[in-house]
Amino acid sequence: MRKTLLAIACALAMTAGSQAQKFDGLAMTPPMGWNSWNTFACDISEKTVKDMADLFVELGLDKCGYEYIVIDDGWMLKQRDKDGNLVPDPAKFPDGMKAVSDYVHSKGLKFGIYNCAGSETCGGYPGGRGHEYQDARLYASFGVDYLKYDWCNTGKMYAPEAYKTMRDALYTAGRPIVFSLCEWGDNQPWEWGAEIGHLWRTTGDIYCCYDCEYVVHKGQPDQWSAWGVWPILRMRKDIRKYAGPGHWNDPDMLEVGNCMSVAEDRSHFALWALSAAPLMLGNDLRKASKETIELIKNTEVIAVDQDKLGIQGYEYRMQDSVSIWVKPLEDDEWAIGFINTSMTEKDINFDFKQHVITDDLSGKSLDATKNEYILRDLFLHQNLKATTKKPVVAKIASHDILMLKATIKPAKK
Ligand code: GLA
After folding, report:
1. How are beta strands 334-340 and 248-250 bridged, if at all?
2. Which of 38, 173, 308, 376 could be bridged to 136 by S-S, CB 3.0 to 4.6 A?
3. Does residue 73 have its Cβ closer than 6 Å to ligand 1?
4. Beta bridge pairs of residue 206
C-alpha cells in the first residue's frame, strides 16, 4: 500500500514538474514599447520597423524604459506554406523575420510579433488555431520576445482554453515570451488571465480621440465600436484588483502624437501611467513633434507607471468636471492627477487636509492631517511652492491635467 501511494505521489510530482505554465518573472512592471498598428495598420515593412528601432536609440527612448518593438497584423502571407508554416510577406520583409529581430536585438531592444487565436487574424491573415505549437516554435526561432494574440474569427472557441493552449505552446518552445492577450475584455480575461499571460486587453480598440465612440461597420452584423481615451478607462472601473506585477490590465496602445491636442495627449499619457497600463507607443516616431517626444520621454510620469508596487490607480472623485485620479506608489508616495474633462478652463482649490484618501485595495492612505507632503508637478518638473499644509490652487486648461507626486516631508533633525 505504502509503495502504491509513493508511486502515485511520484507520478503526480512528475506530471506537475513537466506541466507547461506561463513564463514567470517577465513584465514585472507594465511593458513599454512601440506597436505598428495604431499608425500603420497592415501597411508595415522591414524599413519602418528598423527605423523605429533606430529612433528608440537616437531619441533615447530606450533609456526611458521603452524596450519592445512589436509588429502587429499584416506581416505574413495570406497562406501558410506546404508544411503549414507562417510565411513573412517577402514584399514587406525581404530579409525575413529573423533578420528584423536580429536588427532590433542589435540595438539592445526586444522584438514582438502578432497573431490571433482564431482561424484568421482580424486583417484576414492565417490565424494560430490548430497550429499553436508549430507557430510557437517558429516565433522562438525568429527570436520573438513578445507575442500579442488577438481574438478574431474564434467562433465558439472558449477563450481561457484557447489562450492556455498558446501559453503552453510558448512554454514548450522554451523561449521566454511576454504573452499579451488581446481578447478585448469580452470574456473577463482579468478573471483568468494572470496565470496565462502577462497583460490582457480590457476593451475593444482605442480610437484616436479624447472622448468619443467610433462605430465600425455600422448597421452590419459585425458592427463594433472603438473608443476614445475616456470611455476606454471608464468602461472598466472595477478591475484594478486583478492587476499587479507580471499581470496587467491593458486599456490598449497609446494614441499619443496621432491626432489629439497637446493637452489631451498629456492627459492620455498620464492616465495610462496612473492606471499602471502598458505604455506601447503607436505613433510614427519619424514624424513626432517636439511636444510628443518630450511627453513620451517624461521619466517622472513614466516612473509612476513603472512603480514597483504595481498598484493600478483609480478615480478618487469627479468634482465640477475635474476628475481626480490617485495611485499609491512605493515609499508611501502618491501620484495624483487632476484632469479637466470639460471644454472650458477650470479653477481647482483642493485641500488635501480635507481629503484623507484611503485605498481600500492596498490599505494605503494619503493623510495630510497626519503627514505633511511635498507636492511636485510632474510636467513642470518642479515642486509646488506650498506643501499640503495649504490647498492646491491652480487653473487647468480644457482636457489638460495637473499631475502631482506627493512625498512625505522628512522630519527636521
Ligand atoms: C484587433 C486588435 C487591434 C489590432 C487589430 C489587427 O482589432 O484589437 O489591436 O491588433 O486587430 O488586425
Report:
1. unpaired
2. 173
3. yes
4. 227
DSSP tally for the chain: helices H, then strands E: 11, 20
Spatial CA neighbour of 268 closest among 310, 298, 224: 298
Give me the mean pLDDT over the 275-296 stretch: 98
3-state DSSP assignment of residue 368:
coil
Catalytic site positions: 150, 205
How does 308-346 read in b/e, with b if 16+ C-beta sit within 10 Å? ebbbbbbbbeeeeebbbbbbbbeeebbbbbbbbbeeeeb
Query: What's the whole-number mean pLDDT along residues 310-319?
Result: 97
Q: Each residue of 320-355: pLDDT tens digit?
A: 999 999 999 999 999 999 999 999 999 999 999 999
What are the distances in angstroms from CA 306 to CA 201, 300, 372, 412? Answer: 18, 10, 25, 30
258 CA → ligand 1 middle, Å:
17
The SS3 assignment for 131 reads coil
Nearest Cα to Cα of residue 373 among 402, 401, 410: 410
All three cell numbers of 315, joined, read 478615480
**Does position 13 have pLDDT exceeding 50, yes or no?**
no
Q: Are 173 and 141 in contact (CB under 8 A)?
A: no
- CA 273 to chain CA centroid, nearest Å: 9
Q: What is the pLDDT of residues 197-255, one digit of tens each?
A: 999 999 999 999 999 999 999 999 889 999 999 999 989 978 999 999 999 999 999 99
The residue contributing the CA closest to ligand 1 atom 1 is: 122
Cα 124 to chain centroid distance, Å, stands at 24
